[in-house]
């Protein structure tokens, strides 16, 4: 399961990430509302843990914009203010649950499990583009009766491209969302994984290809069937 944590207190964000990773969840950390919205709009996440008081955009606005964009990912809001009007505002803006800081790690995990279990019936388990289907559980890419299993980074890069099939995804966005904001990955890392993916598309005989916009990034080229 992949979880997005949007929290501007870095020590708390890192502690939350560690709690999630100890449960074998993959956690991505961002530290302001603008990045939280950007990451959330990719639709890559099974759960979003969202602080209310954030720089650039507050949590209420992030939740509202995600719901306006028809992103149905469960949202658990965090706040230091234990006041009923704040909780009502969060739920009215699209949050699914609300926790007050400080909180118990066990209760946090229980709420995460409950929200993802509740959402389980409607969570998308695969992405499609042209003649390709990406299984989000097994990381397998399929065309017709032929399939190939992707490595973790290959899967993350392709999932990002398939989540926004009509958009050019800049290299810096791929680095931030696949390797992490604090990583030392560079353009050549992205280029290497794009090359790996192109070889797998060729192996499958897919009509879908990965296009390059020079000095910008990549996008899926999906022919009209």
TrEMBL record:
Transmembrane segments: none annotated. Residues 2-116 form the Response regulatory domain. Pfam families: Response_reg (PF00072), Trans_reg_C (PF00486). It comes from the Bacteria. Gene3D superfamilies: 3.40.50.2300, 6.10.250.690, Winged helix-like DNA-binding domain superfamily/Winged helix DNA-binding domain. Residues 124-222 bind DNA. InterPro entries: CheY-like_superfamily, OmpR/PhoB-type_DNA-bd, Sig_transdc_resp-reg_C-effctor, Sig_transdc_resp-reg_receiver, WalR-like, WH-like_DNA-bd_sf. Keywords: DNA-binding, Phosphoprotein, Transcription, Transcription regulation, Two-component regulatory system. GO terms for molecular function: phosphorelay response regulator activity; transcription cis-regulatory region binding. One of its GO terms (cellular component) is protein-DNA complex. The modification 4-aspartylphosphate is found at residue 51. The keyword Ligase does not apply. Residues 124-222 form the OmpR/PhoB-type domain. One of its GO terms (biological process) is regulation of DNA-templated transcription. May play the central regulatory role in sporulation. It may be an element of the effector pathway responsible for the activation of sporulation genes in response to nutritional stress. Spo0A may act in concert with spo0H (a sigma factor) to control the expression of some genes that are critical to the sporulation process. This is Stage 0 sporulation protein A homolog.
